[in-house]
5-formyltetrahydrofolate cyclo-ligase
Amino acid sequence: MNKKDLRNKYKALRLELNGEKIEDLSIDVANRMLQLPIWEKSYYHLFLPIEKQKEINTEYLLHILQGKDKNVIVSKSNFKDNTLEHILLTDNTVLKSNAWGIPEPVDGIPIPEEKIEVVFVPLLAFDKNGNRVGYGKGFYDKFLEKCNADTLKIGLSFFESEQEIVDVLPTDISLDICVTPLKTYYFKN
């Protein structure tokens, strides 16, 4: 399936999820995350969910990271050039939703991409090869391109994988792992 069709399919599937189902599935994903051998790292980039898009509630994952005393980095979007600025999340970080409903830090301590060891990647769909479909603006591909080669890229999805995304571009950065409520997928990159 191509990216456009996958976006339409998975946006529609998300619309069918009610608040209780989103919470249950988000907890399942967070619990499955605990089984991964990734917790020895220090710097974790976490996306904050766009509620109107019915994204995975990453609050549960945030609690795990904070409970393990990890450095959590969140992003601020620049829609002029579709890039992200990365900010350390602290007790003093003020979050405010932007015009697209994305919770973002107002300001804070910037963290360079090279320091980030694990990135939790938002997505609409993914395939058995670790390719992902996002909203199509390329924010995460540009971000992941700047990360170290050994930075772990972990997708979070409510839904299981597609067989293949047919229109993958050379600039698309694939995942190392994707976690769903029912399964953890590992990809060779």
The radius of gyration is 15 Å. The longest strand covers residues 71-78. Residues 19-33 form the longest helix (15 residues). The mean pLDDT is 95.
